[in-house]
């Protein structure tokens, strides 16, 4: 989390926690008022930290039975606080969010397994099997069988590649299938579109099949899918007005907060399929509610019931029969084989580093960085003289571009990632440092990052573009044309040589430079570092000392979801 977010949260906690406590305490019997106030303050702090509820061990020192308070009831009592059968304590709104998601998941997981269509099996054998590894093929089979499916995997395991072939098989079964592809940000949706187009070009599908997939499966943000209502927090689509699609697939699902996921689940048609795709080791959403990781960590992946096992054998042999089937058994597939390797190398050094970080193996991470692999570089001082030449080299393609299209393509060549916005380790400092190293002519493209949503010009918070002379250029989602906007009409924006690690989620770059803060900085967590390293396809440069790296890997987020316990 950036320092600005943490500072704002700390301030809000100091104000909001006591205010909530005071509100409830004033309405409680005098004998219980003080205890209820403390309980509510503790719950408020927990939710502000990204957790949806208190577990019994977190409130037993205050009271053994929260139902003694008039403000606390069961799920059906319509009271401000909800105590579940397992003793978890929620504010009602957060309980309703988690219950909505749990119900949508459970209803779909309980639906009968769909039998494989012989026509689809033939299509899979002819056009799909040769392009997938064993677990990717397994994911296709599960997605065809089930109404709810979770696909997870680390960087380089081919999640979006697998999505393309899931969709191609589904459209082979029903060419008129209504498909909604969505992601939490425009950047992530744009990246998904590019990956789908690339997968189609590399496939052996007929031109008509490729065209049908690309035309019917255009990614968009979740907000756009639900239909924002101007001036309101509500959406056009909800339980009374569901979205008109047979299949909803959410990419980068680990970034989706609890509130938005609940709104999406509420708007699903009863018979629609739901597929969630993401990496459970990434950051939990800034707004809280670790929905995706909560689901993934509660189920053993790639294990199936005996009935499902037999039906999946046609797709893959990478399956096991579950010895202890649960409600979501058979819905989860974890991709394991890494396909992102450096040229002329049998190793995936970046993937190995990601694994070491995710598993909390700090010394192993240092060992991997010290092996001398060309894709990894560790510089232990921000004052190292080599950094400036690395920055010039990294942004050379962008700096030498004069055509907007070439400049936008070059944005993916290199990026500087920071944990903070301010200070010597922050985005502002490294943006200025980079700007001073590159060309200052108006003909030289300058990367931009939009800071607010502006529906009037079609630009949104986090969108990347370039400024050339006095015009900003941005890619359109369909890649058919560029958005060209005068400088005076651009919404609030900053230069974008560097960005925060949080904002980089959903993006991918050929090479990155990661700036580690000082060793005593608690903002850089294992998850944040994992996200930073996993943004790179070809090369990672880490700037910072060893203690900063080890402290980050040992600093693990503790966000918790209660959705799995509500199933």
Give the spatial strand order of the biggest sheet.
6-5-7-8-4-11
Low-confidence stretches: 1-11
Described by the principal axes of the CA atoms, the overall outline is: globular
Mean pLDDT: 87
Q: Biggest β-sheet, characterized?
A: 6 strands, parallel
Query: What is the beta-strand fraction?
Result: 15-25%
Number of helices: 22
Distance between the termini: 30 Å
Q: Count the strands?
A: 21
Structure description:
There is one protein chain. Helix 3 (92-109) packs across helix 10 (258-266), helix 6 crosses helix 8 (207-216) and helix 13 packs antiparallel against helix 14 (362-369). By secondary structure, the chain is α/β, with parallel strands linked by helices. The strands form five sheets. It has a six-stranded parallel sheet. It has a five-stranded parallel sheet with strand order 12-21-20-13-19. It starts with a helix and ends with a helix. It is built from 22 helices and 21 strands.
List keywords for this structure.
alpha/beta; five-stranded parallel β-sheet; disordered N terminus; six-stranded parallel β-sheet; 567 residues; globular
What's the structural blueprint in terms of helices and strands?
Layout: H1 3-25, H2 30-48, E1 72-73, E2 81-83, E3 89-91, H3 92-109, H4 118-128, H5 134-145, E4 148-153, H6 159-173, E5 179-183, H7 186-202, H8 207-216, E6 220-221, H9 222-226, E7 247-250, H10 258-266, E8 273-278, H11 291-296, E9 303-304, H12 306-312, E10 320-321, E11 332-335, H13 349-358, H14 362-369, E12 376-379, H15 386-394, H16 396-400, H17 404-410, E13 414-418, H18 427-437, E14 446-450, E15 464-468, E16 471-475, E17 482-486, E18 493-495, E19 498-500, H19 501-504, E20 509-515, H20 526-533, E21 536-543, H21 546-554, H22 563-566
């Amino acid at each position: 989390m950036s320092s600005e977010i943490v500072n704002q949260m700390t301030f809000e906690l100091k104000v909001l926690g006591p205010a909530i406590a005071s509100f409830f305490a004033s309405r409680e019997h005098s004998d219980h008022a003080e205890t209820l106030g403390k309980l509510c303050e503790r719950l408020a702090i927990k939710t502000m930290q990204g957790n949806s509820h208190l577990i019994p061990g977190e409130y037993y020192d205050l009271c053994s039975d929260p139902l003694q308070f008039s403000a606390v009831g069961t799920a059906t009592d319509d009271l401000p606080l909800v105590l579940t059968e397992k003793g978890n304590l929620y504010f009602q709104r957060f309980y309703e969010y988690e219950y909505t998601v749990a119900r949508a998941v459970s209803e779909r997981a309980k639906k009968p397994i769909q039998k494989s269509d012989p026509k689809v099996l033939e299509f899979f054998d002819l056009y799909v099997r040769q392009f997938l590894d064993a677990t990717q093929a397994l994911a296709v089979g599960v997605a065809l069988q089930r109404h709810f499916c979770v696909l997870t995997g680390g960087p380089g395991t081919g999640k979006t590649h697998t999505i393309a072939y899931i969709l191609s098989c589904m459209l082979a079964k029903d060419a008129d299938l209504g498909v909604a592809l969505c992601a939490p940000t425009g950047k992530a949706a744009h990246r998904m579109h590019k990956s789908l187009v690339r997968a189609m070009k590399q496939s052996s599908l007929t031109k008509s099949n490729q065209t049908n997939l690309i035309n019917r499966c255009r990614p968009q943000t979740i907000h756009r899918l639900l239909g924002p209502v101007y001036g309101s927090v509500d959406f056009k689509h909800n339980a009374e007005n569901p979205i008109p699609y047979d299949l909803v697939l959410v990419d980068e699902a680990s970034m989706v907060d609890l509130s938005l996921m609940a709104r999406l689940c509420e708007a699903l048609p009863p018979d629609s399929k739901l597929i969630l795709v993401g990496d459970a080791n990434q950051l939990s959403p800034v707004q809280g509610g670790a929905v995706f990781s909560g689901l993934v960590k509660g189920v053993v992946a790639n294990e199936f019931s005996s009935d499902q096992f037999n039906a999946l054998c046609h797709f893959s042999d990478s399956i096991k029969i579950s010895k202890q089937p649960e409600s979501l058994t058979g819905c989860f597939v974890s991709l394991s084989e890494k396909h992102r390797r450096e040229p002329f190398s049998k190793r995936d050094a970046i993937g190995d580093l990601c694994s070491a970080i995710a598993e909390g193996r700090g010394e192993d991470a240092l060992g991997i960085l010290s092996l001398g692999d060309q894709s990894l570089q560790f510089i232990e001082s921000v004052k190292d003289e080599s950094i400036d030449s690395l920055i010039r080299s990294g942004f050379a393609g962008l700096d030498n571009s004069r055509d907007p299209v070439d400049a936008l393509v070059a944005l993916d060549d290199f990026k500087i990632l920071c944990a903070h916005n301010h200070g010597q380790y922050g985005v502002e400092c490294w943006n200025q440092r980079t700007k001073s190293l590159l060309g200052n002519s108006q003909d030289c493209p300058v990367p931009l990052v939009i800071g607010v949503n502006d529906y009037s010009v079609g630009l949104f918070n986090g969108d990347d573009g370039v400024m050339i002379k006095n015009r900003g250029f941005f890619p359109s989602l369909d890649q058919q044309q560029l958005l060209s906007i005068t400088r005076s009409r651009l919404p609030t924006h900053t230069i974008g040589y560097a960005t925060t690690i949080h904002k980089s989620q959903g993006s991918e770059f050929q090479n990155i430079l990661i700036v580690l803060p000082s060793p005593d900085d608690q903002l850089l967590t294992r998850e944040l570092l994992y996200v930073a390293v996993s943004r790179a396809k070809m090369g990672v440069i880490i700037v910072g000392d060893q203690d900063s790296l080890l402290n980050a890997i040992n600093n693990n987020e503790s966000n918790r979801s209660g959705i799995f316990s509500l199933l």
